[in-house]
Specification:
Yope Regulator, Chain: A; six-stranded antiparallel β-sheet; 6 strands; 232 residues; alpha+beta
Length: 232
């Protein structure tokens, strides 16, 4: 009987909040209640793209809450850049003990996998290889509309924060506090250069053909372009 009542209330909830516009209003309401709202980001690919700080206070981290168009989900993500000094310490570790470095990055990957969140890491480039150091990492989680509740939303934020915090503490424990400056991220620099080249080619093509062309990159995971200048 209790289970049937709970199922009925859930169906009633989902029937009430079914459109993206209503989901956006609901998320804004929750963020306001928890005092997590920071600011809105312009994003033509999304119904809403909101930057928030979680948890509250000086120890909070920046997260992006995105409700993309043509999808029935909310994507929550956060990117962390590794400090320049910590990257230098990693480079020294790679030179002095390559096996130890390989084991460290392997354990970092396993820790992210065990956190049950979606994740991606950005490693330093050496020609066509990416041996390290670890330059940035992002964590993300989708919540589909048919499973959205304030409980699920807030616990997803907490899971992402803890997953992120775990890697940050491992970096600080192994490679020190850093120097307080964000290190380079080769993937972003190369991507920006490639995007500029594509835009130049598009401009040349449009001038020659007078036929507009729209370029977009749908391979990007949630949060890959989100850079709040935050580092470990």
């Amino acid at each position: 009987m209790i289970e049937s009542w709970a199922s009925f209330k859930r169906d009633e909830f989902l029937a009430k909040y079914v459109t993206p516009t209503e989901i956006v209003s609901l998320v804004r309401k929750w963020l306001g209640e928890e005092r997590l709202f920071v600011k809105e980001q312009p994003d033509g690919r999304a119904h809403a793209h909101i930057l928030i700080k979680y948890p509250q206070g000086k120890q909070g981290h920046m997260f992006a809450v995105v409700i993309p168009k043509n999808r029935d989900l909310i994507a929550i993500s956060s990117m962390t850049r590794v400090d320049k000094g910590q990257q230098e310490e990693m480079k020294n570790h790679m030179k002095d003990d390559s096996d130890g470095w390989s084991e460290w990055i392997h354990e970092a990957r396993l820790q992210l996998i065990s956190s049950s969140v979606d994740w991606g890491i950005h490693m330093g480039h050496d020609a066509n290889k990416k041996p390290g150091p670890l330059q940035a990492f992002n964590v993300s989680l989708p919540i589909w509309f048919d499973g959205i509740t304030k409980h699920e939303f807030m616990h997803s934020l907490r899971r992402l924060w803890l997953a992120k915090l775990g890697i940050i503490h491992e970096i600080k424990y192994s490679y020190g506090p850093g120097v307080g400056k964000p290190g380079p991220v080769d993937d972003w620099e190369n991507r920006e250069a490639a995007q500029k080249e594509r835009l130049n080619n598009i401009e040349i093509t449009q001038n020659e053909t007078e036929s507009p062309e729209i370029e977009f990159d749908e391979k990007m995971s949630f949060g890959t372009s989100f850079d709040p200048s935050e580092w470990a």
